Give the backbone structure.
Amino acid sequence: MTAVVSPAAAVEPPPPVARNWSRSRIAGHVLVGLWFLLGVLLVVYLVTAWNPELFQRYAPTYASGLGVTLTLVVISTVLGALLSIPVAAGRMSRNPVIGAIAYSYVYFFRGTPLLAQTFLIYYGLGSFRPQLEAVGLWTFFREAWYCAILAFTLNTAAYQAEILRGAIESVGKGQWEGAASLGLTRWQTLRKVVLPQALIVALRPYGNELILMIKGSAIVAIITVYDLMGVTRLAFSRSFDFQTYIWAALLYLALVESLRHATEWIERRITRHLKR
Amino acid sequence: MQSMLTLISWGPDGWLDDIAYGVFITISLAAATLPVGLAIGFFVALAKQSDEPSLRLAGNIYTTIFRGLPELLTLFLVYYGVQIGLQSLVQLADPTATVEVNSFVSGMVALGVVFSSYASEVFLSAFRAIPRGQYEGGYAIGLTSFQTMRLVVLPQLVRIALPGLANLWLILLKDTALVSAIGLSDILRQTGIAARVTREPFLFFGLACLIYLVLAIISSFGIHAVERSVSRSEAKR
């Protein structure tokens, strides 16, 4: 290819356009300067407010809080993914009764705040203590931790069911018909033809849902679970040092950003065959 | 059964009047946040679709920060951060003074920045859906860039962005529940008080969930009405 030099390559490229100081360029530099100033102020604040005693006392609790947050998110996302399969199947079912039940489930959990759902399970089910004790479930519902997992699982199952349904329905009808004409059963079609295409569509929403779960998990601090937010509130109420919140913010930001970049990397990797 | 009906009745024995006040607070908080969030989100989207790299960078930093932080943490950062900041400023002048930050305003600011960072993404993708020719056509007939934006681009932008913004409104309505953590008497806090006093938590938290559901249903009717009125101006094909 290099042997053929096109005459166009020999022509000099046009000189770069001189970028003068337009109004938007000045505004952009001022705004970036402000962000930079804010970042410098933050670093200066953290350096001047540096307190080795505080750090030694609370760094281990922050690590355990981060662990609690991650455990909560991972357990409830996995359980939610399992629960979302029957819900999504119900949403796509032709039986109107099953469809209506699945729709109400999804509508309820997507239409009400996660905090209210958590309260309903943690405090609300306390109304049924005698009945729960009778069936031996009270030890489960007494613990804030299990209630949080239950609430988050039910909540994320509703969202994940919609993601799954949307992804499966995004695969064209012709794919089903083509597989049927090849003699594949419905289950084989779903597993070998439809799901591989649907999961590519679903990857980004799943990543977003995971991020929403990490952010949403902060509310369990209100029902006395010591996740990252919970230990931060505890540290702040004991030390009245505002840097406790700043450190939590930095940790959450790092967590969410790395997850977002990981999702984008996976998406680039699994859609390589679609790029030209 | 009778006692439960008394509990959710209006008046001194029932809690309905207190809960109605909570509904009022929730709706006014969401309604006050919406215009602020929309305005900030629009300008951040303008910055992010500009040709100027530094403006894009500034907009992207804004979105990254406020989309990455948990809403509850943003709320606490604003509530305590502004309080501590103002306190130390005021105490420079008068060492005995104390500052109390309004939790309604803190909630509005925190929810507003979160809403605007999501709204800026919705506006950005709407901007990208509007072809370059629309701007060029506007300039060709002698409109200034402000006029082009207001008369040509904005009406189309609203139509494209509306479904995304409607979704964000429903999320905002649910996020207002978080302000109960900083002591604002919204639906969840009022029902929580009622639940604690009457020892009927399931009844009252269930009622809270139902109220949020009803608000969501009413909103979706409102959104349909807005969508209809916006799409009326759409060109017939």
User: Anything to note?
Assistant: Chain A has one domain: 58-274.
